[in-house]
UniProtKB/TrEMBL annotation:
Sequence ranges of Basic and acidic residues compositional bias: 95-111
Protein name in UniProt: DUF3489 domain-containing protein
Compositionally biased spans, kind Low complexity: 74-88
Region (Disordered): 21-40, 54-117
Pfam families: DUF3489
């Protein structure tokens, strides 16, 4: 039996941002979240407990018990965290990339070897001439419909202009102006 991993929006944003950073750090929080708050710290602690993020090895540091808040500065996304958001493998695992099929990179992606995220998949669907229906985006990402709608809202907040059209009786979304 497969166990579904449920993450809240804040956790998803933190993991997604960390997966796009070269060092994989969760902090500082992205501009879309704003300042670091107790809610951000709580979300990071939850990710640590679930193995989706990991603290740096501090065994060689003189102070054996740094404050929780200071210790979280170095928290990084783990391979499990990347898998939970569909962001692919950890940079330390790139040596084994030849064992895995090329399907992890999107055909429309630039010449980057970085795996495509779910939001990248949504963007690719929305950039097509025919756009994408909610059902197509849900099928491509594995997200629930309300999560997919929230992602569309997030894209709008980032400056993408998303037009709503009809394809028969079905609503279709398409990016008309890039951010």
């Amino acid at each position: 039996m497969t166990r579904t991993l449920l993450l809240n929006d804040l956790q998803l944003v933190l993991l997604s941002t960390a997966s796009q950073r070269d060092d994989g750090r969760l902090l500082p929080p992205p501009d879309s979240i704003g300042d670091r708050t107790p809610a951000v710290d709580k979300a990071i602690k939850s990710l640590l407990r679930r193995g989706l993020a990991a603290e740096p090895d501090t065994s060689d540091i003189g102070d054996p018990s740094p404050a929780d808040r200071d210790r979280m500065i170095g928290v990084r996304i783990t391979a499990a965290g990347r898998a939970a958001i569909g962001a692919g493998q950890d940079e330390g695992e790139e040596d084994r990339s030849s064992e895995k099929p090329e399907e992890k990179t999107h055909p429309e992606a630039e010449s980057s070897s970085r795996p495509v995220s779910k939001i990248g998949t949504v963007l690719s669907l929305l950039r097509r001439d025919e756009g994408a229906t909610l059902d197509e985006m849900v099928a491509a990402t594995g997200w629930l419909p309300h999560t997919t709608r929230a992602a569309l809202t997030g894209l709008r907040k980032k400056g993408h202009v998303i037009a709503k059209d009809k394809r028969g009786d079905t609503t279709c979304y398409r990016i008309t102006v890039e951010a």
